[in-house]
Amino acid sequence: MAAPSPAVRQLEDALIARLRACTTFRDLLSAHGHAVRLYLSRSSYVATQIVHLCNAHGRPAHAARVFAQVPDPNLHLHNAMIKAYAQNHLHRDAVEVYVRMLRCLPPPWGGGGFSGGDRFTYPFLLKACGGLAAVELGNQVHAHVVRSGCEAHDIVQNSLIEMYTRCGDLSLARKVFDGMRNKDVVSWNTLISAHARLGQMRKARALFDSMPDKTVVSWTALVSGYTAVGDFAGAVEVFRLMQMEGFEPDDVSIVAVLPACAQLGALELGRWIYAYCNKHGMLCKTYICNALMEMYAKCGCIDQALHLFHGMPDRDVISWSTAIGGLAAHGRAREAVRLFEAMDREGKVRPNGVTFVGLLSACSHAGLLDEGLRYFDSMKDAYGVEPGVEHYGCLVDLLGRSGRIQRALDTVRGMPVPADAKIWGSLLSACRSHGDVETAVVAAERLVELEPGDVGNLVMLANVYAVAGRWSDVARTRKEIRSRSTRKTPGCSMIEVDNIVREFVAGEDLGPELGGLAAVLDILASQLAVDDEEFADSDCWLNANVFASD
């Protein structure tokens, strides 16, 4: 393609200056129209700048129209279009632009070599491959990276690691990582985050411990990983170590550790995080307040959660759902219902499935049968929310608590999705409260089918058979319990003392560091002891009063 004349180049430079001055998409459209009138919209130089600006404004469709107007787009324009598609999650379109580029662009230096991309092409193309989770396509692009001579660039190598981790192939990601001469923090953090995201915390921790220069991103990846796999004590421990090493938590690390605080009941740490967020001006961020609200609600401090909620400048659906669910969990059902009605009246945020779980749970605990049925029926009709298994579980619990056992059973059998163990357990509990032995047998048998390894379900089934007078079934169930050698999962409890959360498991020896705690527990146990004869057959003790009122 012939180079533009000096006059054309001068017009292009002036237009580029105008494009760079655009602050809104409307400004960009005006400048684009000016380019069309000057017959410059077919220039790759001008079109590349317009595509970059379209991408910055989140308008990939307009960028595609600009790209299509250029008869012979050069490498820079192809790169801009691939970047625009990849950053707007249009990954397949990004790959198609690259395929077109391979067909259209001439080989370098006019020879018969490989007409691939450059170090600006492949990071975003690899991002597209990772977004598609297409490891075979990623392997082909990796080969193109090698053929084009771009493999030595750090940004390309980091993109290869990210692509393979997104595709779930950590062995290839590690192979690229091990072959890097200059591993930067992005390389380490990408691999650590990938192992943490997949729940491989031992590998993530080993990498983390061998990392020479850690960043707050590295620490946060570890905290997030421990929280995701349910090792909440590990998450809190790493969060504390991060501060001891001199790293100040950012908003991402705070959001990562707060669920662990909530699950552990680590209220003192949660309060410290609140004070830290308040000091550093983070309480203006909705997602920070949402995480703090959830922590306070799960730690039993619903009033503090509501104080945060009412002070939020902007509330999203998570904010409302957290407040409604927290009120329901604390037995303040009517307040939860009033809060939902206030949300509905305000009209700024539409409820979602989580909102209705909290609302229906509130109605169930307060015995608001008519209101609960009305809200359940309105989910799909008025709000477009399709009821899921959690909502049916709340409905069954609501009907069961209200004594509508047969209707609850009909609801379970009519569900569009199979009922889970929680729903059958809720129905069984309602049968126990209202003395419906026949339905209790049905529910207990389904519980055993769904969770055959849970000894508690087998014991409950034996109890139900005993109350129903089905002694042969009692004997069969007891025999099945003994043949499986099932063992109930030991109970545990946790307590926070001096900002340290300790876990106690039933039957576990107490360490010497706990001092005289074991002796105190022995004294308490002796005072609470009952006659051993009452528990002579504790593996399958039949409670004849299982359906007696509480």
UniProtKB/TrEMBL annotation:
PPR repeats lie at residues 74-108, 184-214, 215-249, 285-315, 316-350. Gene3D superfamilies: Tetratricopeptide repeat domain. Keywords: Repeat, Transit peptide. The keyword NADP does not apply. InterPro entries: E_motif, PPR_At4g14850-like_plant, PPR_rpt, TPR-like_helical_dom_sf. Signal peptide: none annotated. Pfam families: E_motif, PPR, PPR_2. PANTHER family: PENTATRICOPEPTIDE REPEAT-CONTAINING PROTEIN. NCBIfam families: PPR. This is Pentatricopeptide repeat-containing protein. It comes from Urochloa decumbens. The lineage of its organism: Eukaryota, Viridiplantae, Streptophyta, Embryophyta, Tracheophyta.
